[in-house]
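Per your request, structure below.
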């Protein structure tokens, strides 16, 4: 810790320009014996690498001279004096130094996050990440003519990774500070009701957890942010994304894998810098009711809602016994906790759905389909009409290109919540934007409506995941039989951005299908099979939605026209929507996706 009035009890290191010094708790410069052993091993490795590329150069040069002339090889080539070995070693040391410096900068970010982590499992996960980075080495391609290209690419990956994780963690620290300032206002005094809240900090005495070379922004003395443990999840996400990209593009060589890693990190950094706020794809009303955290993300205001409800119930109902009061208070705050949990999960699902919807649009566009396959026209329960025969989706989606009468060309200006396609007026009506709106949600019926809303959103998210994964898998299967096309797609930035890699030439194949050409080459047949793997979310849902509305009308007619209360109507709608979701997952969507995957 770099602070004048704090005495270090452990070894630490400092940086002077590009030189790293290790010092003990008294400030004396020391060198660990393990560091000397690592230096010896590194020296041997660099000598082997340099010797390999020198020998490779000599072998290729002698073979070239032997093929172009019948004369004997050059004396300098045979003696090895045609290669400047000292210059090769200098290049090796220069590349290795840049690689290690970039690695140190990346390690500093994860080490500072480790200093903030409190849980044993989180610390173990971050320690594993640090260990993996420490032992990472450049994956040299021994078939190349020089080692500098691989070193530059590896160094570039480390720098992009470091910039990405630094931006993520710095943003997390700023958000945590804003959250703490929102909780611990100047007029707030400590009490027993503050149990469970994160500890406050005094915004004075800025210190650097990373010593003389801080990797992240400086923090105040005794300022701790345990949420920085998410750094390990970012690392694991990057590793998993790179693995799946290599499998998708069948990258087996070192250079191809490294190229994909470079593009992945560049795209991740670009996406982070241009990241929009959650809920930007939805309408302004949804952003206000669901995504706005001005009121509901303030623990003090939410706590006041619960306390006011308890006090008003005591005054209104005249509760006398302490047991009855405590029971009602527990029930009230249990409902509040359920609201907080459901809203958090709904926020996550809605944000992920928005991202997946963009990927789905990219897949549809590359395959020659329009965006309206994503949407289902809203049709309220009370205005629906009985249909003798529900819409049946075509066996193959390519049939929709020839006859699109079964497809509704409805395309809203903003992405709706999934529940709004089924029932927006009653089950899908909620708001977390004010105290009055939250108080109206503090009943069993409203909580059940929110749970159904969450179930609809999760089902929509899973449907989009399945549709995008099927497109990726089928493209991978198609690329097996077309290696040349796969190599061309590999060097396209668009593949990493959309993680689908669908060839843009498929748009021309959709035109061929629309012309109903009788002449079909084998390559066209392959493209048609790839298009048949496209999943229309609208066609998967419209038939089941019509059956659900028919069931509602039949139940309404069975009651003989008796007037239903709002509670009874909402209960029937919730049960029908849940049945609709179960059938969508179990009977229709899952079976069709499994068939298309095969």
């Amino acid at each position: 810790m770099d602070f004048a009035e704090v005495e270090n009890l452990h070894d630490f290191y400092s940086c002077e320009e590009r030189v790293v010094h290790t010092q003990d708790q008294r400030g004396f410069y020391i060198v660990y014996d393990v560091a000397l052993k690592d230096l010896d091993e590194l020296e041997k490795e660099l000598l082997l690498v340099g010797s390999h590329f020198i020998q490779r150069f000599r072998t290729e040069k002698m073979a070239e001279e032997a093929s172009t002339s019948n004369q004997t090889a050059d004396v300098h080539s045979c003696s090895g004096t045609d290669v400047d070995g000292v210059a090769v070693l200098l290049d090796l040391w220069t590349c290795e130094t840049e690689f290690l410096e970039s690695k140190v900068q990346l390690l500093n970010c994860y080490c500072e996050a480790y200093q903030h982590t409190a849980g044993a499992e989180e610390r173990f996960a971050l320690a594993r990440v640090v260990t993996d980075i420490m032992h990472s080495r450049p994956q040299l391609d021994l078939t190349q003519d020089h080692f500098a290209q691989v070193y530059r690419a590896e160094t570039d990956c480390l720098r992009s990774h470091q910039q990405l994780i630094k931006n993520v963690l710095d943003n997390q620290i700023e958000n945590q500070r804003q959250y703490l300032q929102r909780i611990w206002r100047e007029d707030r005094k400590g009490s027993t009701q503050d149990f469970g809240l994160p500890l406050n900090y005094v915004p004075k005495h800025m210190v650097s957890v990373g010593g003389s070379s801080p990797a992240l922004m400086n923090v105040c003395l005794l300022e701790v942010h345990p949420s920085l443990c998410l750094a390990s999840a970012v690392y694991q996400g990057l590793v998993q994304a790179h693995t799946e990209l290599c499998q998708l593009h069948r990258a087996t060589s070192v250079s191809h894998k490294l190229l994909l890693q470079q593009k992945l990190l560049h795209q991740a950094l670009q996406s982070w810098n241009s990241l929009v706020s959650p809920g930007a794809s939805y309408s302004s009303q949804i952003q206000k009711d669901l995504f706005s955290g001005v009121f509901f993300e303030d623990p003090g205001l939410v706590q006041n809602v619960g306390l006011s409800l308890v006090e008003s119930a005591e005054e209104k109902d005249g509760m006398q016994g302490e047991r009855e009061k405590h029971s009602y208070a527990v029930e009230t705050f249990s409902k509040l906790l359920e609201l907080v949990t459901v809203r958090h999960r709904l926020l996550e699902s809605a944000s992920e759905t928005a991202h997946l919807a963009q990927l789905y649009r990219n897949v549809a566009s590359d395959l020659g389909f329009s965006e309206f396959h994503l949407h289902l026209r809203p049709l309220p329960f009370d205005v629906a009409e009985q249909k003798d025969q529900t819409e049946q989706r075509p066996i193959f989606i390519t049939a929709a290109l020839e006859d699109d009468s079964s497809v509704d060309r409805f395309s809203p200006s903003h992405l709706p919540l999934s529940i709004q396609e089924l029932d927006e007026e009653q089950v899908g009506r909620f708001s977390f934007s004010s105290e009055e709106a939250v108080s109206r949600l503090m009943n069993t019926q409203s909580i059940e409506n929110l749970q159904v809303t969450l179930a609809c959103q999760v089902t929509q998210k899973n449907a989009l995941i399945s549709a995008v994964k099927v497109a990726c898998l089928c493209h991978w299967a198609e690329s097996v039989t077309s290696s040349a096309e796969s190599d061309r797609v590999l060097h396209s930035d668009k593949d990493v951005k959309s993680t689908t890699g669908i060839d843009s030439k498929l748009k021309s194949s959709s035109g061929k299908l629309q012309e109903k050409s009788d002449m079909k080459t084998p390559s066209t047949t392959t493209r048609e099979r790839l298009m048949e793997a496209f999943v229309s979310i609208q066609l998967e849902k419209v038939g089941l939605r019509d059956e659900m509305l028919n069931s509602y009308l039949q139940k309404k007619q069975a009651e003989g026209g008796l007037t239903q209360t709002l509670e009874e109507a909402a209960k029937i709608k919730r049960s029908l929507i849940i049945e609709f979701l179960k059938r969508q997952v179990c009977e229709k969507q899952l079976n069709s996706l499994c068939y298309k995957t095969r």
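The chain has a mean pLDDT of 82.

Regards,
D.
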